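User: I'll paste a sequence; please echo it back and then give the predicted structure.

Assistant: Echoing your sequence first, then the prediction.
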Amino acid sequence: MSFISTNDPILKVEELQTEFDLITVSNSLVIVLQSYEEARIVQQLHSWIQSGQGVIIDGHRWFDKSIQDWITEVLPTASTWKMRSHITSLVKKGILERKHLFKAHHGHNYSPKNRTYYYRLDYERLSELAISAINSRNLNNAGGAE
């Protein structure tokens, strides 16, 4: 009896599958972000956006996720510290925006003690980083051709 499914292009362990099991991350996105884990987080956010999940606040789609949610749904082997580190890195790069929007989301049910973060993907900043990576690659290739 095989526990690994080999009849599909994606190898998977059927006994351990989750609803988030089949997220594909492009090598090009990994190159832009310089991190597979961060690319996986960005790809998952994009997938949620494409499927219409999250809430619209001020014209943007936001997701309220705890660190444990991020671990469970995106990087199941990450520690809490590592996941916080990846999210902080994406925030510093400007790709991920993080805000406290509980009051905007829930209105009168607002509690000042609620510290839930909401996250959104900044596609414009991601495009800027992609252009920068392309230009950097072109400069490196031009330098090596001389």
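The helical segments are 27-33, 36-50, 67-73, 80-93, 102-106, 123-145. The chain has a mean pLDDT of 82.
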